[in-house]
Description:
- There is one protein chain.
- The chain is an alpha+beta fold and 374 residues long.
- The chain folds into 3 domains: 7-118, Butyryl-Coa Dehydrogenase, subunit A, domain 1 (Orthogonal Bundle); 121-224, Butyryl-CoA Dehydrogenase, subunit A, domain 2; 227-373, Butyryl-CoA Dehydrogenase, subunit A, domain 3 (Up-down Bundle).
- The protein is built from 10 helices and 10 strands.
- The chain has helices at residues 7-24, 38-46, 65-78, 80-99, 102-114, 226-262, 274-302, 308-333, 344-352, 361-373, and strands at 119-123, 139-143, 146-157, 162-170, 176-182, 188-193, 204-214, 219-220, 264-265, 268-269.
- A hairpin with a 2-residue loop joins strand 9 (264-265) and strand 10.
- Helix 1 runs parallel beside helix 3 and helix 4 (80-99) packs antiparallel against helix 5.
- The longest helix has 37 residues, at 226-262.
- It is globular, with a radius of gyration of 21 Å.
- The chain starts with 6 loop residues before the first helix and ends with a helix.
- The structure holds acetoacetyl-coenzyme A.
Amino acid sequence: MNFALSQDQIEAREWARAFAKEVIAPSAFLHSREKIKPSLLEEISKKGFMTLLVPETLGGLALDAVSFALVMKEISKACGSVGVTVAVTNMIADVLVREGSSFQHQKYLADLVSGRSLTASFCLTENSAGSDAKALKTSAKKNISGYQISGEKIFVTNGAFSGFFLVMARTSDEAVSAFLVERGAPGLQLGKEEDKMGLTGSSTIRLSLENVQVKPEQLVGKEGDGFKIAMRALDGGRISVSAQALGIAEAALEAGIRYAKERQAFGKSLSDFQAIQWKLADSATSLSAAELLMLRAATLKSEKKDFTQEASQAKLFSTEAACKVCEEMIQIHGGYGYTKDYPVEKYFRDVRVTTLYEGTSEIQRLVIARNLLR
Length: 374
Ligand code: CAA
């Protein structure tokens, strides 16, 4: 494996870094109190950030998976809430490129490219189907006009902003299928925002579907393909979550280094104490190791090789490492780290969910172990 980034990959990272610093970072701390403004999402969409992996022929920026991960890291470093919003939208765009029909490309993908739909949402989880995603109960009953979908989805990222939703529903006792459901469809109700610990600028809602009629053209892939479509989407999504965690933790590490140099105690700078230096050294080392795992998974995805195990390893290691780094940076800040006057408080809250969403650390271990034992 070649560890050097290509010129294109470096340029993609620099482009995202400059945009994130100039456009996203200024409102990052506002997102502890309010949702991301649609005007910010419009600006992000206009630059092509919502369809990064989409081929140019379909209006996207055609980045490879490594560039995509690097871009996701830069955006999340500026603001975790924006990071997850962009990541999930790209995950749906990637599903549409891979599995969508030409009708779906021309309608739904084009809506993301043009910004008519600012974001898109992935609707798998239900009240009694979280880690055990296959236990989902939402049903799609075939009728003369297509399918009628009924059920309840929870933890729908981007719900408030999305023009359409990728909904996994049961078409028989054994089969799950994937459908594109449009915002405003009769019978579709958007629920209230979850009151979350972190990533408070991003939207997370419940979705209730009561006899929502969809046409046959809104079925993604073939009937019964839905679970595999969702699992393949999550394989890619897990590389994004690794990138999100790394971005947030890198911001925390930089804040920790700044504070350690500024703060005086016992007549010297905190950074002169070996106890502090070791925290910084261990944090930087674990983030570097995590980034290599992320780049390995992304490289395999780019090369169209199997990357399920590697994506789970990258997510597991990066998110656990990132949580630990954010906690250590609070420790370096002492009591101040527990206040909203310092950014590490936000990083700690934002990073925590990365070991939970798109598969908990326990589910990543299960996926990795199953691959080892196959
Ligand atoms: N790619 C393609 N196909 C896959 C796959 C993958 N990565 N993983 C599984 N499959 C296929 C299997 O081959 C199997 O196919 P067959 O029926 O043809 O044999 C089928 O899917 C079922 O697989 P399993 O028998 O392994 O299913 P399982 O129920 O035992 O376990 C699981 C699956 C790994 C535990 C899975 O349920 C899982 O990943 N759970 C976590 C769910 C998750 O990550 N949820 C996050 C939701 S999204 C979110 O967080 C918020 C957001 O907005 C993004």
